[in-house]
Write a structure and sequence with these properties.
Layout: E1 6-12, E2 17-20, E3 26-39, E4 45-57, H1 58-67, E5 73-87, E6 90-104, H2 126-133
Parallel strand pairs: 4-6
Antiparallel strand pairs: 1-3, 1-5, 2-3, 3-4, 5-6
């Protein structure tokens, strides 16, 4: 059995572009940035950013173009696909995520530092946001994660 599955959560680096294919179906393309923090051999904290190209087809693509914008948080689920073409006598390659599902995060705000996002893209009242957060939680309930790295000796198993 083979598996080609990609899951990423990140912020859009540019506004989505919606195009119509000759067949009449729609395709939305955008780029998502993800990051990873680690400590090198000397104990210095490093951060690496990766950029992922995403293509979304059909109705999900139309909704992505409508609700997402640069800086928006998104959860993308799909498969990896590499295309190739010839340009100026050179073979070019592009690997992208062909998304099956896109979940929209919260709207980008400059005052939010916790990174918590609602699963409702255009919710304007706190009651609507609270309905999707789980049982008994209020919109002001956010999880505060520590900024320090987890040490292996702290793991209970």
């Amino acid at each position: 059995m083979y598996l080609n599955k990609a899951f990423i959560i990140g912020n859009l680096t540019r506004d989505p572009e919606l195009k119509a294919l000759p067949s009449g179906s729609k395709v939305c393309t955008f780029s998502v940035a993800t990051n990873r923090a680690y400590k090198d051999k000397e104990g210095v904290r490093k951060e690496v950013v990766e950029y992922h190209n995403v293509a979304v087809f059909g109705r999900v693509g139309e909704l992505s173009a409508q609700y997402l914008k640069k800086g928006s948080q998104a959860f993308v689920e799909g498969r990896l696909q590499t295309r190739s073409w010839e340009a100026d006598g050179q073979k070019k390659y592009r690997t992208e995520i062909i998304a099956d599902n896109v979940q929209f995060g919260g709207r980008p705000t400059s005052s939010s530092s916790s990174g918590a996002a609602s699963s409702v893209p255009n919710s304007s009242s706190g009651e609507e946001k609270g309905a999707d957060l789980g049982k008994g939680s209020a919109p002001s309930d956010t999880i505060e994660y520590p900024n320090e790295d987890i040490k292996p000796e702290d793991i209970p198993f």
